[in-house]
Amino acid sequence: MYTAYVPFVNVHLVANDSLLGDGTIQNVHIRTGLNTNLLVTATWSPAKDGSFSRRVGIDLISQYLSGFNTSITVKPHLNSIPGQRLLCKALSQFNATFAIPRLSLPGDTPSGNSHFIRNATFHFLSSTASFTLVSPLQLNTLYLDFVNATALHNHTEPVGRILYDLPFAAPPGMSETPRLPVEWSIGSVGYDAVRQAIGGKLELDARATVDARLGNWKESLWYHGKGIGASVHLT
What we know:
By secondary structure, the protein is mainly beta. Helices cover about 15% and strands about 50% of the residues. The chain contains three helices and 15 strands. Strands 6, 7, 8, 9, 10, 11, 12, 13, 14 and 15 form a ten-stranded mixed sheet that branches. A five-stranded antiparallel sheet has the order 3-2-1-4-5. It is elongated.
């Protein structure tokens, strides 16, 4: 059995030919066969490569949160292994693209329901709605500072719009949003579907732009959710 000791390796994390950050492995032993539980430290810094890379980073996170299939490319560079310039130059000609694994969220079902918006409750007369959110974070609280969202029936028919600019928290696990004001799309097929569902349920889609904040990190993200179960109450 052969073992290789790796004191330090750094690689670039790339998507759509844009540098989004880097990953580092330090002080690990690589053995023949399957190597598991190797600690990799990643740094997310797309803005360092310009405004286009920042846009790519926003889209990647937004697609991931929306449940799209996403991938990232790992690419060695000229300083991947300190003191090994010739080896780094050779390695920099190669890269590997990996699918980003889906996160396991609280309340996930065997069918793979991984919506970050798990369900919704619409209150018809008060023109408000609340949502059950599922955060993938285990230790940190995410804050939503601004929400611009539209609910859709049958994928295309608008139900109503939400504009809300008061910050609220999405702590680890499941949480409930405050009641958010809804501007109904009166006269639309989607509005009629909600009106007819009072006292029952229906499935809706959601399209939203959200200003998210985590510590010192702030970003405006988009979210597309499909098949969100919604209860409709008269009050």
